[in-house]
Amino acid sequence: MTEWHFYEPAAGHRLPHDPLNAIVAPRPIGWISTVSAAGKRNLAPYSFFNLFNYRPPLIGFSSMGWKDSVANAEATGEFVWNLATRDLAEAMNASSAATDDDEFTLAGLEATPSRLVAPPRVAASPVAFECKLTQLIRLETKEGRALDQWLVIGEAVGIHIDAALLEDGIYQTARARPISRGGGPADYFETREDALFRMKRPD
Questions:
Q1: Using 50, 70 and 90 to split pLDDT, how confident is the model at 194?
Q2: How many CB atoms lie within 10 A of CB 14?
Q3: Among 101, 109, 115, 122, which is most buried by a count of CB atoms within 10 Å?
Q4: In the prediction, which pLDDT does 43 show?
Q5: Contact 154/114 with Cβ under 8 angstroms?
């Protein structure tokens, strides 16, 4: 017979570490580059990130606190998502530091210009989405109390894909070795070919 650990989040989880972000995992990483209205570059990873719509393609990231990525996206209406891969994991992690310095420089990353938006791309990232801001939403509790949590949604108006990731025109997900965020203070996962299984949707 299954033994359940049940808790109401408002009353606390009664565990050594909050299990929430370990349960909803692995989570894709929103590695977001922006520029301020004055043109200062910013690069930061967000583990509250995902794709929300096909056509038009809408992606979003959620920030705990009004951080530079949110402020810059609001000010300029633009941001870029860069795919975080295993080869770039350490640089991605370095870009998460709380600093007033340029995170591209801090993480030792080369930037390359975007085509349709001002924020640059991470040159070594094999996929990037150039995005225009569509919605900036302050999240609320069930009682309607505003949280210091900000959901930034953008439409991808330009998409860059390293052609080496395409086989007969089909994007090969594992070939890029994308990484995702797990639970705890330091857990990440790599998507690999040996973890692949296939299921077709029912007719």
A1: very high
A2: 8
A3: 122
A4: 98
A5: no
Q: HEC profile for the chain?
A: CCCCCCCCHHHCCCCCCCCHHHHCCCEECEEEEEECCCCCEEEEEECCEEEEECCCCEEEEEEECCCHHHHHHHHHCEEEEECCEHHHHHHHHHCCCCCCCCHHHHCCCCEECCCCCCCCEECCCCEEEEEEEEEEEEEECCCCCEEEEEEEEEEEEEEEECHHHEECCEECHHHHCEEEECCCCCCEEECCHHHCCCCCCCC
Q: If you search the block for the tokens 């900000």, which residue do you land on?
A: 150
Q: Apex CA 84: angle with CA 58 and CA 100, to 5°? A: 90
The most confident of 96-100, 159-163, 180-184, by mean pLDDT: 159-163
User: Cα–chain-centroid distance for residue 182?
Assistant: 13
**Two structure tokens written together for 179:** 């990484």
